[in-house]
Automatic annotation (TrEMBL):
Entry keywords, A to Z: DNA-binding, Transcription, Transcription regulation
Molecular function per GO: DNA binding; DNA-binding transcription factor activity
Similarity annotation: Belongs to the LysR transcriptional regulatory family.
Protein name per its UniProtKB record: LysR family transcriptional regulator
PANTHER family xref list: TRANSCRIPTIONAL DUAL REGULATOR HCAR-RELATED, TRANSCRIPTIONAL REGULATOR OF OXIDATIVE STRESS OXYR
GO cellular-component term (any): protein-DNA complex
Coiled coil: none
PROSITE patterns on file: HTH_LYSR
Domain HTH lysR-type: 6-63
């Protein structure tokens, strides 16, 4: 065996510098001094005989090969973490640390329902939560920053596996009085595109709404400016337009103390699918499926 292989610590330094683009911030992320991190990277470069990073006083610039090696190092570190996680799962499933990403259109509405039971049923599980938009959460998953993501499907999240938990129906929300006698359900064809308020890009709910309505003109005409569902509700309550809300948000009381009315969306596919997703081929698949079962049971209880 080659005794001159890079160490995991050297690879951690390289990935941290690639992520932060600054020696000081990368050192802080690794909990070492800047000189320690710099020395470790120079040892790595000396070991493989290649300059990975061009250093100037103002700029840290990775060489093309340095970028490739940093991405490979990221995968090696992720596999090392999964190796450790696999060993823990084999000894006692759903115990120890687990990092889960959650998107903002799920986190505040579902987590309060599922976390108490999850803590009671799996007291040895240390669940670290990271709330991010769908785009950022999928990126964090493949970079190894999180182990799994609570996501709404369909969504292009790369090479993943998924365990679906339940279906979450979409509702049309509008100011009280906009429709004197609102029907039991609102057809997608009856939505005024000039008054439709949607979330900013990066939130999968925006894509789910547009796909459910199946009206190409909505993508061009709808106003996409909300940073959260709570923000959209406040704009609707102030008579600025209408929006779409998932059923879990309504069940959590997002319309309490407002004059906003909600009716189910009438469309071919008026819902999104809530799922737990993880990297395809992960050795912790059995543990993630066990977690999905626990989440499904808690969410539907």
């Amino acid at each position: 065996m080659n005794s001159y292989l890079p160490t995991l610590k050297q690879l951690q330094y390289l990935v941290a510098l690639h992520d932060h683009g600054h020696f000081g911030r990368a050192a802080d992320a690794c909990f070492v001094t800047q000189s320690t991190l710099s020395a470790g990277l120079r040892e790595l470069e000396s070991l493989i005989g290649i300059i990975l990073v061009e250093r100037t006083r103002r700029v840290v610039r990775f060489t093309p090969l340095g970028n490739r090696i940093a991405e490979k190092a990221r995968r090696v570190l992720r596999e090392a973490e999964e190796l450790s996680g696999l060993a823990k799962a084999a000894g006692k499933p759903l115990s120890g640390d687990l990092r889960m990403g959650v998107i903002p259109t799920i986190a505040p509405f579902l987590l309060p329902r599922i976390l108490p039971k999850l803590r009671a049923d799996w007291p040895d599980l240390k669940l670290y939560l990271r709330e991010e938009t769908s785009t950022a959460a999928c990126d964090s998953l493949h970079r190894g920053h999180v182990d799994c993501v609570l996501l709404a499907l369909p969504y292009q999240c790369g090479d993943i596996e998924a365990a679906e938990l339940f279906t979450d129906r979409l509702f049309v929300a509008f100011p009280k009085g906009l429709m004197p006698d609102p029907p039991p359900a609102i057809s997608a064809e009856d939505i005024d595109e000039s008054h439709l308020l949607l979330l900013e890009d990066g939130h999968c709910l925006k894509d789910h709404v547009l796909a459910a309505c199946n009206r190409p003109e909505l993508r061009a005409e709808a106003t996409m400016l909300g940073t959260s569902l709570h923000t959209l509700v406040q704009m609707v309550d102030n008579g600025l337009g209408m929006t779409m809300l998932p059923e879990m948000a309504l069940n959590a009381g997002i319309l309490d103390n407002t004059d906003v009315v909600a009716r189910p969306l009438e469309a071919a596919h008026p819902s999104r699918r809530i799922a737990l997703v993880w990297r395809a081929g992960s050795p912790r698949e059995k543990e993630f499926r066990l977690l999905a079962d626990a989440l499904r049971e808690s969410a539907t209880a």
